[in-house]
Amino acid sequence: MTETEILIVGGGIAGASVAYHLAAHGRRVMLVERDEIASGASGVNAGAIDSVGWGDKPDLQAHLTAGSVEIFQAVQLDHGEDVEFRQSGALQAIHTEAQHEFVRRRVHALRARGQQVELLTTRQARSLEPGLSPALLGAMYSPLRSQADPRRATAAFATLAARHGATILTHHAVTSIAPRAAAGYLVRTTGGEIVAGALVIAAGAWCGPVGELLGLDIPITPVRGQMWATPPAPPSVFQTIASAESQQAWDLDPGEAPPFLTIRRGTRVTRHLYGRQRRNGEIIFGGDREPVGWNATPDPAGIEVNRGHAIEVLPFLAGLPIARTWAGLMPFPLDGRPLIGRVPGRDGLWVVSGLASSGFGRGPMAGKLLADYLHTGTPATVLAEADPAGRIRER
Length: 395
Known about the structure:
This protein has 395 residues and is α+β, with helices and mostly antiparallel strands. The chain has ten helices and 22 strands. Strands 1, 2, 8, 9, 10, 11, 20 and 21 form an eight-stranded mixed beta sheet that branches. It has an eight-stranded mixed beta sheet with strand order 5-6-4-14-17-18-13-19, sandwiched between helices. A two-stranded antiparallel ribbon has the order 3-7.
């Protein structure tokens, strides 16, 4: 039997960030992962890191995005971990007059809050990204948005955690969790038993099953996202690329439990698009969000829809074949809000999850906020927006 002060369940970007930041605080930390580090959504996403800046009055979203950019910068530039980080900027393509009006209003609102975005003409956008279609009606430019390699970046947080004394255990699937009479938890894994004073659930889409081991209903559901890649190509895409279509659709009707899907009950409600070119030359795109249980097999029909959307933005993609496809399961909160904090009614139990489709870009700061709260006992004010109270229930 092994003992530790704090045990983290889940080796994705959020869990690895919690481990790193707690270890940096001098806490005795252990992380268990049932597979390899970054084997879930944290390792198979697009690697986009969204940020429009802190703004004048930073809310939780500003903390998670702008804060994560700063953490990624530190990992790459200060700690010597090459995670392929690059502050590339991002362009969100505008296809219709209705989208143009939606983006114009959004840019105005963001700039009024002190955040950094611009509405560009098609000519201005094509000066930054020459491959953009001249048929577009413009683009929203976000100069602070960035990119990194998701697998390398997640592994870097685990490496930094270990460098500060944390123990990282892969291929340790959790099979049972029981509160101890005195304090803390007894966690049985396929690699042995662990006694921990505090327990952090950071299991991504699998937070629900982990919660069930404790008799808790954690309102996280798996949502499949899928992507495709071209063969390596010469430098052709310089920003991260998105489309305004889905944002406008979700602004009109976000849907419910969980919101912000592209396919609901088998029917497509919108298209969603994001992509970039990796350092190895692959051009990667994706976008679908569909609740299909634990099915992580790509849907060819959805891939073709997404490829068609990408070609509308970057017409040269029509001349490049699809070299590979893949999918992953994202942790979507049923009410659309992240879960970051102490689980009420359970001593020493914490959760960080529900970052939905942008977990990679928000996970580093989510992990830091959770780690700081656990270490000091005092939550950052913005964590009120992610409080698990009243949302996690006894089964």
